[in-house]
From TrEMBL, chain A:
Keywords: Cell membrane, Membrane, Transmembrane, Transmembrane helix. The lineage of its organism: Bacteria, Pseudomonadati, Pseudomonadota, Alphaproteobacteria, Hyphomicrobiales. PANTHER family: NA(+)_H(+) ANTIPORTER SUBUNIT D1, NADH DEHYDROGENASE. It is found in: Cell membrane; Membrane. Residues 151-449 form the NADH:quinone oxidoreductase/Mrp antiporter transmembrane domain. The keyword Transmembrane helix applies. This is Multicomponent Na+:H+ antiporter subunit D. It is a multi-pass membrane protein. InterPro entries: CPA3_Na-H_Antiporter_D (IPR050586), ND/Mrp_TM (IPR001750). The chain crosses the membrane at residues 27-44, 56-76, 96-119, 131-150, 156-174, 186-211, 231-255, 264-290, 296-318, 325-345, 357-377, 398-417, 437-462, 483-507. It comes from Roseibium denhamense. The keyword Electron transport does not apply. Belongs to the CPA3 antiporters (TC 2.A.63) subunit D family.
From TrEMBL, chain B:
Belongs to the CPA3 antiporters (TC 2.A.63) subunit C family. Its main location: membrane. NCBIfam families: PRK12658.1. It is found in: Cell membrane. It comes from the Bacteria. This is Multisubunit sodium/proton antiporter, MrpC subunit. It comes from Roseibium denhamense. Pfam families: Oxidored_q2. It is a multi-pass membrane protein. The chain crosses the membrane at residues 6-21, 28-45, 75-96. Keywords: Cell membrane, Membrane, Transmembrane, Transmembrane helix. Gene3D superfamilies: 1.10.287.3510.
Length: 537, 125
């Protein structure tokens, strides 16, 4: 230890703190989290005012979208941005480090939340609003954006808990029997998952004495054995924890047990966002921080990916409840994303595969949310969520039928919609890496998904009426009230925005491919990320 | 110094896993409570244990004169305790409400969200 120094000497604060003022644009780094927390608090204060609440929430959610657009533009312009809380020099202060990956996902997530808020105006009744749909939604977004933007492992845990507690609130909104049953499974398994995450984080701290992601990435890359037993244990703990969050096989059973129980707009938000935060955390930790462990575990990840792809697709085939069917499709999508994580031993192939995963995550966020919303509209029009009780929707509303068909094509990975390109990238990377089985599993899962979605289309849209309708005849739905239901603007606009994005990313994929490639490159070669935290050393 | 607490942590994990594998929801809740404590203690032990030397710098000095207790794991554990406590409280209420509604605390019988004899999707076109 250095000899004692007296305080009479001038204290050099610059040794421990960053004294330079923060550039005005860099405040955008914390803006999404601040908007989420502030907006959630203000919506909570207006809890009793059911007509004001949606307006407040939509204001904050549009502010969130604007902040994320600004943040992504700044990151693309200036490279990775870091902001350290309290001005403490890293690794001592908690760092928010925003790279193209985090900013992209944060932006897409906020757009989806904006659409969900809009959709909620017509589907969440005044009781649901009084019990806090909008405060929970906005707070959930602060958790989601915080998880995407933070550069500190323990802080990531905290944001996970913020989004988890908000999701509990949303899940049991309505307090019905089936919801409580689903929420028990969701609640218990997700809490156990975060505990695994916390064990891993404690071990990381025990081994490296730091929690800053960039700092850990450097320390691991400097080790002689970057995949030693201790590190592999940590990597496996993280993989288990985030696989649980992402609902990968064999820890996927909480998802189909709970996602169909809450209000349809809540299901839509969950299906879009929550599992993808798990995938994002896997990317961040397995690729940026522990690349050697990822290569070591690649076969295991590939196996899990194949099992997840098949579970999801076969599960979807076996369901006649549309929301449960969609829940299994969420799982199938997670399998495709995990496949990208398993591919690649040389940086070039890895970057391609990871970029496929990122694009797939963006696609899945948009299309799963839109599909759940569409299921809500199908229930509104046909009076049922079950394939047996639905029919004749094509005659009822041709425009909606067309929109559903676009989404069905997209989720099956058929061109020319957004699901096609990430699958092309992933399958191509899988074959060039010699993992043909993985590519085959992705294609087979897509094929089964096409059958499942085709069945929904035939039963709910094409045939004349619900089960029991004579062949060749068209009847109005059994539920007399829902005949001639008009779909309002608060339903059309969010569905339209999401479907437009699906079509746009399908027809003009270059922009998104380029963005995911930049995100993947920043993960595979962490130099830019580390430099942003520690400066050019 | 860390050996004895490490064994204790292992014991806690064993107890919590045993309880969480139970069919009864109440036992699972107890298992989760113990799991939270086990995790907190493992973080604490991971931060290395020392005798009670507070990390206080004497007057007139800039660095402490001897090896002090590590305050960071304590801060982490404090955060984790608050979070796991609030989650546990929520889960307890949730489990009680579920018991009231479903009428059983045997998780094998809690099949409301996923009914046992769920009909298969319609066959043929």
């Amino acid at each position: 230890m250095a000899g004692p120094t007296t305080t009479t000497a001038k204290v050099d604060y610059a040794a421990a703190m960053n004294l330079a003022p923060v550039a005005p644009g860099d405040w955008l780094v914390v803006a999404p989290v601040l908007i989420g927390l502030l907006g959630g608090a203000i919506c909570l204060m207006a809890r009793k005012n059911v007509s004001l609440q949606p307006k407040l929430a939509m204001f904050f959610l549009s502010l969130l979208v604007a902040a994320n657009v600004g943040l992504l533009a700044r990151v693309l312009d200036q490279g990775v941005i870091t902001m350290v809380m309290g001005g403490w020099l890293p690794p001592f202060g908690i760092a928010f480090t925003v790279d193209p990956l985090g900013a992209t996902l944060s932006l897409i997530a906020s757009v989806v939340a904006f659409c969900a808020g809009l959709f909620g105006i017509s589907t969440v009744d005044s009781t649901g609003r009084r019990y806090g749909f909008y405060p929970f939604l906005v707070l959930l977004m602060s958790g989601v954006c915080g998880a995407f933007l933070t550069g500190d492992l323990f802080n990531l845990y905290v944001w996970f808990e913020v989004l988890l507690i908000s999701s509990y609130g949303l899940l049991i909104l309505g307090n019905s029997r089936v919801q409580l049953d689903g929420a028990v499974k969701y609640g218990v398994l997700n809490l156990i998952g975060t505990n695994f995450f916390l064990i891993g984080t404690g071990m990381v701290y025990g081994v490296f004495g730091t929690l800053n992601m960039a700092d850990i990435a450097i320390k691991i890359s400097e080790l002689d054995a970057p995949a030693s037993g201790t590190l592999l244990t940590i990597a496996v703990l993280y993989f288990l924890a985030f696989a649980m969050k992402a609902a990968a096989f064999p820890v996927n059973f909480w998802l189909p047990a709970s996602y169909h129980t809450p209000n349809i707009v809540v299901s839509a938000v969950f299906a879009g966002l929550l599992t993808k935060v798990g995938v994002y955390a896997l990317l961040r930790i397995m690729v940026l921080i522990m690349p050697a462990s990822r290569e070591y575990l690649a076969d295991l990840i590939a196996l899990v990916a194949i099992a997840t792809l098949l579970t999801g697709a076969f599960g979807a085939l076996a369901q006649s409840e549309i929301r449960r069917l969609l829940g299994y499709l969420v799982i199938a999508g997670i399998g495709a994303m995990l496949a990208g994580l398993a591919i690649g031993t040389n940086p070039e192939v890895t970057t391609t595969a990871i970029s496929g995963t990122i694009f797939y995550a963006v696609h899945s966020i948009i299309v799963m949310t839109a599909l759940y919303m569409a299921a809500g509209v199908m229930n509104q029009l046909g009076g049922s969520y079950d394939l047996r009780g639905l029919g004749g929707l094509y005659q009822q509303n041709v425009a909606f039928a067309a929109l559903f068909l676009v989404l069905a094509f997209a989720v099956s990975g058929l061109p020319p919609f957004s699901g096609f390109w990430p699958k092309v990238i992933l399958v191509d990377a899988a074959f060039s890496d010699g993992r043909g089985w993985l590519g085959a599993a992705i294609l087979f899962s897509g094929f089964l998904t096409t059958i499942a979605m085709g069945r929904v289309w035939i039963y709910a849209f094409w045939r004349g009426g619900p089960e029991g309708t004579p062949d060749g005849q068209a009847v109005a739905p059994a539920d007399g009230q829902s005949a001639g239901t008009v779909i309002g603007a608060t339903v059309w606009v969010p569905l339209g925005i999401l479907t437009a994005m699906v079509v746009y990313f399908g027809l003009q994929p270059e922009w998104m491919i380029d963005l995911s490639a930049r995100g993947a490159a920043g993960l595979v070669d962490p130099l830019g990320y580390v430099r942003s935290v520690f400066g050019d050393q | 110094m860390e050996t004895v607490p490490a064994i204790l942590v292992g014991l806690f994990f064993a107890v919590s896993v045993y309880l969480m594998l139970s069919k009864q929801l109440v036992r699972m809740m107890l298992g989760i409570a113990i799991l939270g404590n086990a995790v907190n203690m493992s973080i604490f032990v991971n931060g290395r244990l020392t005798r009670e030397v507070p990390p206080v710098i004497p007057e007139g000095l800039l660095v402490p004169t001897e090896v002090t207790a590590n305050p960071l794991p304590q801060a982490l554990v404090l955060t984790a305790i608050v979070i796991s406590f609030s989650f546990f409280a929520f889960l307890l209420v949730l489990a009680f409400r579920a018991y009231q509604e479903v009428g059983t605390d045997d998780v094998n019988d809690m099949r409301v969200a996923e009914p046992e004899n769920d009909p298969l999707p319609p066959q043929g076109y």
